[in-house]
Amino acid sequence: WMSEMRTTIAGDAAPGAPGDPRPEANVGKDLDTVVDMQSIVSIFNRNPGFYNPVSYGIIGSLLLVWTLISLRSQAVANQAWLAIAAAAALTPLFAYHREHDTKLLLLCIPACIGLWAARGALGWTAMILTTTTIALNGDLTQIARIMLIEPHVSYQPGFIANITAILFGRPAQLSLLILGVFYLLAFMRQLMRGANADRAQIVDGES
Q: Which residue among 3, 10, 158, 199 is least packed, with the fewest CB closer than 10 Å?
């Protein structure tokens, strides 16, 4: 079934297919749009031989870091929810996914509440990023963007034009990437704090 699944995904994302992530396709122009990383990278280069490896490399590297951190983490709620939040934001970017798959972002809410309860800059950042990302991936926001912004987005060559196209044409995808990296860093930070606390206990016990 793995071979069949790869063939199906490749066919769905081929040029001209419903899941074509390139700017020339229907990405960003319909309600249930493609949200994978390819839809961002393809703005810089329309060649699948470029945007597929680059996309897999970026998100694959982040998920590899997530895996390594998860293997070292402890079975405690605060670390578990941060791990789930990071995975919920990053996994839709890895391969063919559409906007309805971003309902997984609801899994970020417990981690957000946990960080918010501690207050401070981290809590505020979690609340702002999580709320913004959920809103940008919501149906009403997508409808408003398609009707009001997408007709004015220009996918022209040039670095500044590409960045502008990403900001206004791919805000949902960009928000997923930012949120995923944020929770990944928060997960790493929590793990390091736990490790430092364990070392402190060992030192106190020895003394």
A: 3
**Token pair for 184:** 């990944």
Determine the Cα angle at 63 with ends 59 and 67, to 5°: 170
Q: Residue 77: which residues within 8 A CB-CB, separation 6 or more?
A: 114
SS (H, E, C) the chain: CHHHHHHHHHHHCCCCCCCCCCCCCCCCCCCCCECCCHHHHCCCCCCHHHHHHHHHHHHHHHHHHHHHHHHHCCCCHHHHHHHHHHHHHHHHHHCCCEHHHHHHHHHHHHHHHHHHHCCHHHHHHHHHHHHHHHHHCCHHHHHHHHHHCHHHCCCCCCHHHHHHHHHHHCHHHHHHHHHHHHHHHHHHHHHHHHHHHHHHHHHHHHC
